[in-house]
């Protein structure tokens, strides 16, 4: 018994780390000599607007990153002409203290990073830069990635119907709208939805919509019927289903619309096949990573179906170039799940977990790729 307490503490800490909000971008900055000056790279800092100013007393550059969530280095020692860097979190400003006057820095975006080239300049030129209230440069930041949320069914297709008459199409629309609110409040992505009302949308149109939006991620939300099953589960695309339940779910979902196919560019069939398999391999890794993060975010909060991450040939997951997953937030065929899914409070818990997994994925591209057996 003695040994179990610290371990439980560790588990609690690990769970807390899973659910804790993270800064919008990786912290850190790197500085290296370049010519007579320095090159300063701020990873993740290009995700929002910025503004660069010079001040004469003390002699420094001030980079403002408002509404960012970016975390700079608390203090970083410099290389001349930079004396040191200091991040003021409350003001959302990076102070770049100087050892001598500099010319107007070159500042630009490289991927998600802001990059500054700072070179020595004359005192007169620096005095002009530090003139009252004039920014040296401003920028808008990179456009935010688009996440497409796809509430299943709609209109003439109610989806599954629970024992007390709960319709899947209504439950999943409410859950997706809650996810949208959470994601938009987080400010790290834009959200587009395949439907926002009770209308029928063919499966192929859902995939096409995501591709037109140039979506970074596609997340389909369902609450189907599967006899004997209970709890949330996550599905990624595979031509061979991981189990009978997944195969049956995919069959039923795909039957909602026979025209789930993709319009592929007009190239010879064998070229098309090679291109697709290359793109799909990468997309599949992204999908699996997203699914793993989602299971990790759901696990401490809601009941889960055993072997929570499963695979099957869902037509709606077939965009070859967009990491996609389908989440069954529960099964309306289960009385317990139906009772929970009817409650806005329970849906909010699910939506929060899904939104945090999506934000994690967007924040840490390329991390945690594992395969499923
Ligand atoms: Zn469904």
From TrEMBL:
It comes from the Bacteria. Pfam families: Amidase_3. InterPro entries: MurNAc-LAA_cat, N-acetylmuramoyl_amidase_3. SMART domains: Ami_3. Residues 1-25 form the signal peptide. Its EC number is 3.5.1.28. It catalyses: Hydrolyzes the link between N-acetylmuramoyl residues and L-amino acid residues in certain cell-wall glycopeptides. Keywords: Hydrolase, Signal. Residues 207-359 form the MurNAc-LAA domain. This is N-acetylmuramoyl-L-alanine amidase. It comes from Pararoseomonas baculiformis.
């Amino acid at each position: 018994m003695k040994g179990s307490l610290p371990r439980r503490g560790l588990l609690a800490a690990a769970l807390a780390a899973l659910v804790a909000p993270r800064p919008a971008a990786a912290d850190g900055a790197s500085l290296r000599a370049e010519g007579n000056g320095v090159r300063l790279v701020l990873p993740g800092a290009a995700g929002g607007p910025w503004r660069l100013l010079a001040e004469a007393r003390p002699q420094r550059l001030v980079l403002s990153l408002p509404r960012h969530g970016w975390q700079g280095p608390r203090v970083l020692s410099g290389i001349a002409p930079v004396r040191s860097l200091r991040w003021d979190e409350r003001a959302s400003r990076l102070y770049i203290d100087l050892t001598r006057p500099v010319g107007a820095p070159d500042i630009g975006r490289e991927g998600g990073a802001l990059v500054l080239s700072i070179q020595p300049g004359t005192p007169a030129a620096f005095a002009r830069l530090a003139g009252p209230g004039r920014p040296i440069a401003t920028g808008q930041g990179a456009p935010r990635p688009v996440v497409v949320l796809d509430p299943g069914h709609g209109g003439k297709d109610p989806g599954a119907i629970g024992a007390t008459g709960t319709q899947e199409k209504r439950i999943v629309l409410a859950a997706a709208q809650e996810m949208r609110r959470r994601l938009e409040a987080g400010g790290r992505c834009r959200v587009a939805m395949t439907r926002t009302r009770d209308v029928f949308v063919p499966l192929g149109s859902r995939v096409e919509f995501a591709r037109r939006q140039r979506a970074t991620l596609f997340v389909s939300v369902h609450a189907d019927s599967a006899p004997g099953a209970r709890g949330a589960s996550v599905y990624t695309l595979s031509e061979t289903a991981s189990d009978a339940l997944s195969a049956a779910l995919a069959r039923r979902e795909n039957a909602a619309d026979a025209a789930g196919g993709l319009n592929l560019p007009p190239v010879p069939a064998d070229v098309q096949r090679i291109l697709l398999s290359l793109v799909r391999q990468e997309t599949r890794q992204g999908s699996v990573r997203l699914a793993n993060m989602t299971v990790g975010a759901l696990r401490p909060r809601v009941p889960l179906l055993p072997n929570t991450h499963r695979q099957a040939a869902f037509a709606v997951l077939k965009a070859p170039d967009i990491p996609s997953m389908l989440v069954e937030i529960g099964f309306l065929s289960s009385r317990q799940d139906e009772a929970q899914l009817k409650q806005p409070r329970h849906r909010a818990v699910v939506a929060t977990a899904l939104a945090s997994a999506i934000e994690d994925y967007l924040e840490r591209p390329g991390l945690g790729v594992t395969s499923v057996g």
